Amino acid sequence: MAPLTVGSYFQKINCFCFTEQTMAPGEKREMPVVFYVDPKLAADRDNDGLNTITLSYTFYPVRAAEPLAAGEPDKRKGSL
């Protein structure tokens, strides 16, 4: 979310991001987000001149995870 100063005024009611999403290669899909911006934002002087709020998402690949014992180093291929 940008700018960061609006985060406390932005309320997601429903979002595709609340559940894991699996997509096929090349698949296109509408992924709705239902939200509102608290009207108190207009009175917040830290946001004077605000014209745009940007909400963005990053999608990451999901890997089949094998449980690791606590403290055991992650030696799976491609782990971060």
What can you tell me about this protein's structure?
With 80 residues, the protein is an all-beta fold. It is built from no helices and two strands. The chain has strands at residues 10-15, 33-37. It has a two-stranded antiparallel ribbon. The radius of gyration is 19 Å and the shape is elongated. It starts with 9 loop residues before the first strand and ends in a 43-residue tail after the last strand.
Major sheet attributes: 2 strands, antiparallel
Beta-strand fraction estimate = 5-15%
Shape: elongated
* Order of SSEs: EE
How large is the radius of gyration?
19 Å
Output the keywords:
80 residues; mainly beta; two-stranded antiparallel ribbon; 2 strands
Which SSEs are present, and which pair or pack?
Layout: E1 10-15, E2 33-37
Antiparallel strand pairs: 1-2
Task: Tell me briefly what this model is.
By secondary structure, the protein is mostly beta strands. It has strands at residues 10-15, 33-37. The chain has no helices and 2 strands.
